[in-house]
């Protein structure tokens, strides 16, 4: 499983919306959608995966 697939799996399993992904990655909403749909060779990179993972861990710590 590559980085893009792992990122999509996390997003899907947690039910994250494209708007939240755009906010986390500091990209436009349309860029977020393009990455999620893998349009025009847009895909999630290692740094995208790490940013999303970091956000999830931060949120989970605040919920404890």
Task: Give an overview in words.
The protein is mainly alpha-helical and 64 residues long. Helix content is 73%, strand content 0%. It contains four helices and no strands. The chain has helices at 3-14, 18-25, 29-37, 46-63. Helix 1 packs parallel to helix 4 (46-63) and helix 2 (18-25) packs across helix 3.
| Main beta sheet | none
User: Count of helices?
Assistant: 4
Element string (H = helix, E = strand): HHHH
Proportion of β residues? under 5%
Overall structural class, as computed from helix and strand content, comes to mainly alpha
Poorly predicted spans: none
Shape: globular
Counting DSSP E segments of at least 2 residues, the number of strands comes to: 0
The percentage helix is over 70%
Mean pLDDT: 95
Termini gap: 30 Å
Radius of gyration: 11 Å
What would a concise description of this structure say?
With 64 residues, the protein is mainly α.
Ordered list of secondary-structure elements with their pairings:
Elements: H1 3-14, H2 18-25, H3 29-37, H4 46-63
Helix pairs in contact: 1-4, 2-3
What structural keywords apply?
mainly alpha; globular; 64 residues
